[in-house]
Amino acid sequence: MSYPYTRPRRMRRDDFSRRLMRETVLTANDLIYPVFVHELDGRAPVGSMPGIERLSIDELLRVAERASELRVPALALFPVTAPEAKSLTAEAAWQDDGLCQRAVRALKQRFPDLGVITDVALDPYTTHGQDGLIDDSGYVMNDETVEALVKQALSHAAAGADVVAPSDMMDGRIGQIRAELESQGHIHTRILAYSAKYASSFYGPFRDAVGSAGALGKGNKYTYQMDPANSDEAMREIALDLDEGADMIMVKPGMPYLDIVRRAKDEFGAPTFVYQVSGEYAMLRAAIGNGWLDERGCVMEALTSIKRAGADGVLTYFALDAAQWMREAG
Ligand code: PBG
């Protein structure tokens, strides 16, 4: 039975039937807001990310209040380390009174119901901008790095982080972190594993924001982040992380990797998150700023597409804007 009996346009004719058959509905519950925190007072704009600022802890609390009001479930914290605090061994990463640890405490004290996610990786703390500790040849050493990551994750959990999110792509780190969290009594701390994290050129603006771009220079992360050409490898990484004790997995970046998101959700059925990264934000913002794209239309379409591909939630720099628009739309 085809045309004229079947006319798919009948269902698209009116708003009521379009609404009735809509499969994917984005809500504020699907959003995680990444925030940059610095040691300075006030706010400082991030040049390559219009609308995004580095925040003092006081300003962070204001943003957290707004996120709570908008019912955004969680923030993801990214500290900007002062250059003099960086070192080859990255010990600033696990100090009890470090910037990240203080930010977590301040947030959990004022907004206990707002989820706080911390990034576990050494790149904000190393003088060379790599996510781990390097040997004399510059190679990022796996097992030595994992030891440092365990200390970092424990210090975040001790400060009260609800979720620790290893974004470093070292082998075996989820298992080691999980074991140590359990043995220290942090049995409720969730692990969001950046399992399928690609060596992407879309992280550029983020590296400007946290100030690791200069340190990294012409360096790259090809020996630990994944080749954008690979899909099977992502499934292997996800399987390992779930097996080692991850509660949630992540695919990163977002829009260029929606095939990976769909595969991950279909193959594992685990809570699956996607990071719409800084470069994706910058691209959209630049086009919006030039008047080439409609802001609400293209942002909501991008986020809805990520959810349709299988994501349970999206880390996005548009989280507060999108939550605000959804509220206005009712
Ligand atoms: C660091 C980290 C990066 C991002 C999140 N955590 C950068 C990188 O791996 O170089 C990128 C996020 C973004 O681009 O928005 N481990």
TrEMBL record:
InterPro entries this protein is in?
A: ALAD, ALAD_AS, Aldolase_TIM
Name the Enzyme Commission number(s) assigned to this protein: 4.2.1.24
* Any single biological process term in GO: protoporphyrinogen IX biosynthetic process
Catalytic activity, reaction form: 2 5-aminolevulinate = porphobilinogen + 2 H2O + H(+)
> Which PROSITE patterns does this UniProt record tie to the protein?
D_ALA_DEHYDRATASE
Q: What class of enzyme is it?
A: lyase
Do the record's keywords include Aminoacyl-tRNA synthetase? no
Gene Ontology terms, MF aspect: porphobilinogen synthase activity; zinc ion binding
- CDD domains, per database record: ALAD_PBGS_aspartate_rich
The UniProt keyword set, sorted, is: Heme biosynthesis, Lyase, Porphyrin biosynthesis
Give the UniProt entry's GO cellular component terms.
Answer: cytosol
Please name the pathway. Porphyrin-containing compound metabolism; protoporphyrin-IX biosynthesis; coproporphyrinogen-III from 5-aminolevulinate: step 1/4
Q: Quaternary structure?
A: Homooctamer.
Protein family (similarity comment): Belongs to the ALAD family.
Annotated protein name in UniProt: Delta-aminolevulinic acid dehydratase
| Originating organism | Lysobacter enzymogenes
